[in-house]
Structure formats: C-alpha cells, structure tokens
Design a protein that fits this description.
97 residues, alpha/beta, 5-stranded mixed beta sheet, 5 strands
Length: 97
C-alpha cells in the first residue's frame, strides 16, 4: 500500500475530510499546500497517492493499485468515473514544478 494524501491549496471542509477518511482510513490531510515538495516530504512509501479535495471520488474507485516495477518512474493519473480529474500516484523521487 502507498501513502495517501488528501491535498488542498486552502482549508479542507470537515465533512469532505470525514467522508474521505471514512473510505481511506490511512489517508493524511494536507491543507494550505503550496508546492509538490511539501507533499513529497511527507511520503514514506516509494510512491504515493494524491487526491485533491475538489475531486469527487467515484464510489467504485479503489486505491489499492500497485504500480508495476518498470513503471515506477512515471506519474500515473487515473480515470475517476468518466474523467481523468486529479487522482494520481507519484514516485517519491519525482521533481514536479
């Protein structure tokens, strides 16, 4: 399992956080995030999930995907319902600007 971060540029509503945390109990809430580096520093796993707080996660979406070894150097963006809208797995070594 990879670390899971629920990320916002501002404050996260308590109801949104409680709903997300109910589905993903190991998730961490990160508010007032300005840079990718702030998220990356908090990760303990070699890859980590990022879900932005404005994304409505499809009820059928599952965060148990494991990245194949040969794809661990890439950022992976996932389809959430009909759209690729902000659910990603990042490699910890990634440098995003």
């Amino acid at each position: 399992m990879y670390d899971i971060f629920y990320v916002s540029k501002g404050a996260i509503s308590n109801s949104a956080w409680e709903e997300f945390k109910g589905r993903y109990p190991n998730a961490q809430k990160l508010e007032n995030v300005k840079t990718f580096e702030e998220v990356r520093r908090r990760a303990f796993t070699k890859m980590f999930w990022v879900v932005w707080d404005y994304v409505l996660v499809d009820p059928n979406f599952n965060l148990d995907y494991r990245v194949p070894k040969w794809d661990e150097e890439y950022v992976h963006v996932f389809k959430n319902g009909e759209y690729y809208d902000g659910i990603c797995i990042f490699p910890k070594h990634a440098r995003i600007s």
